[in-house]
C-alpha cells in the first residue's frame, strides 16, 4: 500500500520536497515505485503556478472591488458637485431677482424724489409770487393809511360849547355859581343835556378840575352810593375805588353820606346829599 511522506532532498538545498513512498507491501514492487515517484514530481511542478493563479485571482478580485468602491464614491462626488452647481445657479438667479427688485425700488425712490423736488420748486415759485403780491398790497395799504393820517392831522374839527361853559379837550364844563343839593344839581345838568361830572382815566382832566375849584368851596360830582350801596357814577358805570383820590378816612358814610363832592384840596369826600354845594356839569363838545 502506498503513502505520501515528506523527506529531505539534497538537490534543492534547504527546501523540502514531497515524495511518494510505499509500505512494506509495495516495496516489493520496484517498477510501480518508479511510476509513483514520477507522478509526485509532476504534482510539485503544478502546485506553484496554481497558487500564483489563485493569488492573482484574489488580487484581481480585490482590485476590482476597490475600483468599484472608488467609482461609487466618484459618482457620489459628481452628484454632489452637480447638486451644488444647481444650488449655486438657483442662488445666483434669486440674487439677480433680488437685485432687480432693489434696483426697481431705488428707481421708484429716485422718481419720487425728483417729483417732490419739482413740486417743491413749483411751490416755492408760487409762494414767492404770493409774497410779492402781498408785499405790494401791504405797500399800497401803508401808503393809503399814511395819506389818510396826514389828511386827518391837517384837518381838525372846530369844537364849541354853550355860552358860560368851558371847553377842555373834547368836553364842555359848567362850574355853577349857585349852590343846590345833589338831586337838584343832577336835574339842572340834565336840562342842558349834560351830567354831573364823571371823571375819566385821563389825569389831565382831574388837574383841570382841581385848578378851577382850588380857590372855592366844594362841588358836587356825579358819584353816589345811594341807590345800590356801592359807589357808582351817575350813568350807572362802576367806580373803581382809589383811596388816593379821597380825603383821609373817607368815604366813611357818616350819617347817611351817600353823595360825593370834590373839595377845594382836589380830594373827594362823601357828604349828605341834602346839603347845598356848587356843582360841575359835563357835556360833549359840539363840532362846527
UniProtKB/TrEMBL annotation:
Family matches, as Pfam families: Lectin_C
SMART domains linked to this entry: CLECT
InterPro entries the record matches: C-type_lectin-like, C-type_lectin-like/link_sf, C-type_lectin/snaclec_domain, C-type_lectin_CS, CD209-like_CTLD, CTDL_fold
Residue intervals passing through the bilayer: 46-67
UniProt keyword terms in alphabetical order: Disulfide bond, Lectin, Membrane, Transmembrane, Transmembrane helix
Domain C-type lectin: 168-282
Gene3D superfamilies tied to this protein: Mannose-Binding Protein A, subunit A (3.10.100.10)
GO molecular function: carbohydrate binding
Protein name: C-type lectin domain-containing protein
Classification of source organism: Eukaryota, Metazoa, Chordata, Craniata, Vertebrata
